[in-house]
């Protein structure tokens, strides 16, 4: 593969403008890239849709931009096109996907990864037809993402989420959701449907979740008062949320969630997007995610039928 085969979609608004860091990375990598800069929300989706399959496509931004590019690939797949492998140059505020695949936020490490990426096949999630890599949440986390001040986020980064999260714990909104998984119904106040172990950065929300698995883990929290929400918040920072006696974690590849408290917001891969009700399933269109070699070695080994160069042997149900 020649260096000219690399396309980078750059969100100049991610994590404050990190253009200098991006140029440092590209200089380390010594690659000639086609650099496409976004000019508005949703632009990464439009740009990714047009990138051809022989390219390697990297998104220089946060999880929100990566999600947009993933949806651009989905658009192209629905139109019948083959799509390029997708990777991340982590420039965002939290960058959960980079944490999940073990990509350090250091110029040299990222440059090595750009030059020599491993690959894993992933079936992304679909929520009401929109693709996601990491997770969908509703309850206190979605309320936090929906109400976080963008000005404060630009000033203090992740701290803005902590402050807004605390406000949602002290002044919780009434939340009452019904989660349907097979024949089981759960009545809860907060849900995170996750395909990844990590959440909000380095916190572990579900240690057994895996991007390469054809299943999500549904983390359900019934408590809605200040006591329960602060306990969940503290447990999350100690990576022990899943161990709380009132928290249920259920593995599934399909579920629906409805609201008994009006049109509650959802967060999708860390961005506020849409409202309940929702239907969540696995996408019938797998994508190649470029990851550090170490992650590919571990996960291709445990994901039978998946190799770097060939199509995965997936049983894909017609949705
Ligand atoms: N040129 C632009 N101007 C304004 N907003 C943009 C532009 N390009 C992309 N966006 C929007 O910026 C939002 C945030 O982007 P992104 O997720 O990449 O960064 P972040 O929020 O800092 O990182 P993270 O999601 O990891 O916390 C996305 O929802 C995207 O639609």
Automatic annotation (TrEMBL):
Pfam families: DAGK_cat, YegS_C. Keywords: ATP-binding, Kinase, Lipid biosynthesis, Lipid metabolism, Magnesium, Metal-binding, Nucleotide-binding, Phospholipid biosynthesis, Phospholipid metabolism, Transferase. GO terms for cellular component: plasma membrane. One of its GO terms (biological process) is phospholipid biosynthetic process. InterPro entries: ATP-NAD_kinase_N (IPR017438), Diacylglycerol/lipid_kinase (IPR005218), Diacylglycerol_kinase_cat_dom (IPR001206), Lipid_Phosphate_FormReg (IPR050187), NAD/diacylglycerol_kinase_sf (IPR016064), YegS/DAGK_C (IPR045540). Residues 1-131 form the DAGKc domain. SMART domains: DAGKc. It comes from the Bacteria. One of its GO terms (molecular function) is ATP binding. SUPFAM superfamilies: NAD kinase/diacylglycerol kinase-like. Its cofactor is Mg(2+). Gene3D superfamilies: 2.60.200.40, Probable inorganic polyphosphate/atp-NAD kinase, domain 1. This is Diacylglycerol kinase.
